[in-house]
């Protein structure tokens, strides 16, 4: 390598060392997890999903819905994760979800909604 090529080489090395963004799931990850979950459902649960969503495959097709509407519904952003301190031994609801505004609390809210048969299918879906 000659002296004139060194700045180009140095720039290429520096660019290669820059951290790249890491997207936790993305659409493909959500669809894979939804496909696995759908396969693991009991026949009764699969029928319930089909009734509420319009077909069992809709569980996979709709698995990205929360990410797709996040910009229009910023209040749902914290429903995607829980921040647990790195040194913590595990999840502590009082510390990690004090306002019931995290994915763990939202899963429980969704479970209660689905179990409430007094709600119509549209509200439960």
Topology of this protein?
Layout: H1 6-17, H2 26-40, H3 43-53, H4 57-61, H5 65-68, H6 93-96, H7 103-115, H8 121-124
Report on this model:
Helix content is 54%, strand content 0%. The mean pLDDT is 84. By secondary structure, it is mainly α. The protein has helices at residues 6-17, 26-40, 43-53, 57-61, 65-68, 93-96, 103-115, 121-124. It is extended, with a radius of gyration of 22 Å. It has two domains: 24-68, no CATH class; 74-125, no CATH class.
Average predicted confidence as pLDDT: 84
Total DSSP helices? 8
Number of strands: 0
Domain count, please report it.
2
What is the chain-wise order of helices and strands? Answer: HHHHHHHH
Radius of gyration: 22 Å
Summarize the main sheet: none
| Euclidean distance between termini CA atoms | 63 Å
The SS-based structural class is mainly alpha
Low-confidence segments, given as residue ranges, are none
Give a concise summary.
This protein is an all-alpha fold and 125 residues long. It is 54% helix and 0% strand.
């Amino acid at each position: 390598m000659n002296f004139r090529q060194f700045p180009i080489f140095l720039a290429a090395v520096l660019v290669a060392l820059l951290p790249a963004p890491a997207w936790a799931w993305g659409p493909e990850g959500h669809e894979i997890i939804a496909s696995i979950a759908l396969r693991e459902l009991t026949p009764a649960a699969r029928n319930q999903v089909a009734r509420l969503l319009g077909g069992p495959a809709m569980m996979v097709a709709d698995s990205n819905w929360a990410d797709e509407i996040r910009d229009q519904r910023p209040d749902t952003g914290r429903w995607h994760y829980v921040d647990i301190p790195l040194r913590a031994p595990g999840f502590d609801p009082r510390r990690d979800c004090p306002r019931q505004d995290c994915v763990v609390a939202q899963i429980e809210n969704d479970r209660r909604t689905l179990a409430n048969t007094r709600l119509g299918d549209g509200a439960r879906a």
